Amino acid sequence: MSRETMLLVFLLTVPDIAQAMPHGCSALGASGRDLWIIAADQEPRHVLRAERDIAVGSWSPNGREIAFHVVRATTDLPTEAFIADLGGRIIGRFQIDKGQSDGGLRHIEGIEWRGERILVTLGNRGPNGGYMDVWRLSEDHTGAAKVLRVGTLGGSCAVSPSMQYVACRGGGKIKIFNTSAPADENGVVDDLRFFETPTSGDPDEPSERVEGGLAWGSDGLSVYGVRSLDGKRVLTRIEKNPVAAEGWRVTDQDLVGIDSPVRSIEADASGGLLLSDGRRVFRVEAEPETPRSGVVARVVSAAELRRPGAVEVSTERGKLRLEVLDTYCEERNPR
Q1: What was the pLDDT predicted at 13?
Q2: Distance (Å, whole) CA 162 – CA 184
Q3: How far apart are CA 116 and CA 137, in angstroms?
Q4: Chosen CATH of 198-304 out of 3.40.50, 1.20.1300, 2.60.40, 2.20.25
Q5: How many CA atoms lie within 13 A of 80 on its CB side?
Q6: Residue extents of the structural domains in the chain
Q7: Type and span of the H or E element at 279
Q8: Residue 153: band (very low, low, confident or very high) from pLDDT cuts 50, 70, 90
Q9: Would you say 124 and 107 are in contact if contact means Cβ atoms under 8 Å apart?
Q10: What is the pLDDT of residues 265-276, one digit of tens each?
Q11: In terms of Cα–Cα distance, which of 197, 145, 192 is closest to 170?
């Protein structure tokens, strides 16, 4: 994608659209081929227009660059990542994998900036898994070298802060893969002894289901998810414990206060968890008082979410719904 194919357009907008954004925070939003920045107390700003729909995106730790991936015209084409500055100029691009017809990735489902020059991509290779890749960007962001590839099973994966573990949901279970396991002859880490939550009841007809995504705690050794388990909605915590079976301990607590499926989960700055059902936002304490005690979800402001699902902006073309790809907060990501 050349610079000429990226159209930088500034649209007239009305104020007070970003009231839901916390002070000091900005959201990266996409609507089809358009990329926007929505900042608290500012009018939304259109950044660039891509050749095709923008699928996923992430803000650099210093808030000065954006990494994103666009949907390809056909899955037979290679998957790519693009790096842009905040003015909409493309400053780098690199190939993530070959096209599907050549044995490569089918879709890119996630891209995360994990350091000044470190990117993580999550790719879907088939119906039951894909790869987590770690990339080291060149100093000028014009290219990238792959430093790690890990095979995973399931979808909607979350990478731990240290990048040592990848948690994925699949088949009603939560699975955790260790990226420090030995690599195979192709240089791929394939953790064949990965941990997964045990199945309750009939293994052929499991009654559990993982709702929404997964979230790692700040310690990087515990992951959280919401599950429907035997007719109840529970908050599941899986923490690294060397003396537990398979090295991980699972704690399920009845989740009270949410009567609809959870669509997203994230850890907040004070050690709690923020859950959303798409309409409301709830907060729960992540640390269990007792192993089997229930946890209460209390409604809080949508502005507490680091990554709200979507926001609506008004332009000269009318109202526009933006899917939020990532959020940058100065107090959480100091320059």
Answers
A1: 30
A2: 22
A3: 9
A4: 2.20.25
A5: 20
A6: 1-153+306-335, 198-304
A7: none
A8: very high
A9: yes
A10: 999 878 899 999
A11: 197
